[in-house]
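Q: Cytochrome c, please. Structure only.
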Amino acid sequence: MNKRQTRMFAIVSTALASLLFLVLTVDSHRQFPTLTNADDITEEVVRGQNVWHAYNCINCHTILGEGAYYAPDLTKITQLRGAPYLTAFMKDPSQFYDEQRHRRLMPNLGMSDQEISDVIAFMDWVGRIDNQGWPPRPILVAGSSIPGADLSLTQQQTEGEGTASGLPPGARPVAPDNAPIAQGEALFRTAVPTCQACHSMAPGVNLAGPSLAGLRTFFEKIKASGEYTGKATTAEEFVRESIVEPSAWLHPGPMYSAGGVSFMPPNYGEDLSDEQVDQLVAYLLSYN
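A: Structure for Cytochrome c:
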């Protein structure tokens, strides 16, 4: 290739690349209103964005991949935690995390009720943006350093985590993939919002929600003590009730409810079929 041909190749390649870039840019801007749900940007959402900036939330948190990495990514936080939990958390973060135990403590920003409501509306809008799957997984606030805590039960069996038999403490062997326990495990990790975003299956590891290990023993204990005020008479009924009617009995502690309403999402009874709930119950009770 001589100099003239080389020059022409460079000019044509640059022109084609520039044209492609221009076309993709225009197409992206064409899709932005739909991808960002622009029609849902209300005055409350705009005020919430101003609150986000006024309190410098981005100095610790990330949204859509932008910000600091000192604290969890909040892109999907409203879908993972829900407005009641976030409201109570922002009013008094010290009720949820202890600096000595968890080695972190979000400061009490002294936000007004209106500011809290607005910033939750903003975060809810952010979480509904079509962001092509970002973040790839929720960033847990606690418990992620527990050996095997982020592995599935089947992974732990394969890789030999936990007891000498290859199972984590208290776990039963998982049946084939078409069995209720295995299907329940899949739901635990894929339901919307995902159960694993708030709950750990490791004994004593409490995240946004209490550990779900040993639910059968836990139910028998609260039933015998008179603490339980729900309608369930068996552990299976108790777990089902906790999934489809979470406020029927409130787990003790300010981290899990406020004003007589559980922070647990109330939509599972509508979004999941009876069979799927049965599968979740089977999986959760497989941890003795």
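A: Brief note, in case it's useful. Strands lie at 62-63, 66-67, 257-258, 261-262.
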